[in-house]
Amino acid sequence: GAWADVLRSKVAGERKVRPLRGSHLVLPRARLPLDEVIGFPHPEDKRPVFVYPWEGATIVGTTDLDHRASLNDEPHISDEELRYLLSAAQREFPDAGLRREDIVSTWAGVRPVVASGKGVDPSKERRDHVVWDDHGLISVTGGKLTTFRLIALDALRSAARHVPGLDASDTREPTFRRAPVTGPTALSRAVRERLEGRYGPLLPRFLSEMPAAELVPIGDTPTLVADLRWAARHEAVVRLEDLLLRRTRLGLLLPDGGSAHADLIRRTVQPELGLDDAAYERAWDDYLALVRASYGLPNAASG
Predict the structure, then answer these.
(1) Which parts of 135-269 are beta strand (E)?
(2) Beta 57-61 vs 17-28: how paired, if at all?
């Protein structure tokens, strides 16, 4: 990913990755209700902007800028990026009356784009993936999520040169198998379809293991209390931000990282994470500090 050059520098002198930041706004669905993706050119620079429904909210994105901050620090949106995205949504949906105060949260990610070396505009860099083999150190970077299977296959083929017997063939089988739906019949069709998509063949186990009373949403999000418990129990959570920003997206979907639901979150996940009261309270304070610094509204001085 974006850190490939850091590791490769120990065995290869070249630097090939151009980290590009993409930032997003999260709006309440009630303020901008959409059922489909809408794309349009930004009035300032004609870059494509997309507004789309996501996890019960509405997303506006994205930017495409050189990310010059340290890769060891959490990326965050700048005030200029927020203005750029919000102004695009305001122009495209004038009747919505969108304001800065409507934004629930923001997030930024860093794309590991392979640099052309030509100094072109970030949006004009190719998004192809690359696999490097530096004396047995296999590095993968670039690409898009939609090509994950081809990326994985190319990486395995490179590794197979060093690992005898490694199977790097493409079976062309479906990546995910549809699971038979069992469990509570009171679940709505929308909830069932969401769970099928999220858990796939693990769904029968999820429904048998999670308490029926926890198959209810948290706030106005589609995330269930059971989703939270399952992730805390089974999905390698180390810190609360792993759980609330990545395994689930509650920290993005709820104001102030979900602080209004702090008691429910604690009752559900503290026993699963095996934390005593003091350790959990420190973890919660650290999580909220991160959310407020990197996933909220930026200060105008943030650049």
Answers:
(1) 137-142
(2) antiparallel
Total number of domains constituting the chain: 2
**Is 162 part of a structural domain of the chain?**
no
Q: How far apart are CA 179 and CA 169, in angstroms?
A: 25
Hey, which bits of the chain come out as E strands?
17-28, 38-41, 48-54, 57-61, 65-66, 105-114, 129-134, 137-142
CA gap 2, 21 in Å, rounded: 10
278: its two tokens: 């003091």
CA distance 19 to 298: 21
Cα atoms found within 13 Å of the Cα of residue 185, Cβ hemisphere only: 0
Question: Residue 296 belongs to what H/E stretch?
Answer: none
Question: Using the 8-state DSSP alphabet, how is residue 52 labeled?
Answer: E
Whether pTM > 0.85 for this model: the answer is yes
Of the residues 105, 124, 143, which one is the last residue of a structural domain? 124
Q: What are the pLDDT digits (tens) for 238-282?
A: 999 999 999 999 999 999 999 999 999 999 999 999 999 999 999
Residue 301 falls inside a structural domain: no
What local confidence, expressed as pLDDT, does residue 56 receive?
A: 96
Domain that holds residue 41: 4-124
* CB neighbourhood size of 103 (10 A): 21
**Interval 57-104: pLDDT, tens:** 999 999 999 999 999 999 999 999 999 999 999 999 999 999 999 999
Q: Which residue is listed with tokens 């083999």?
A: 133
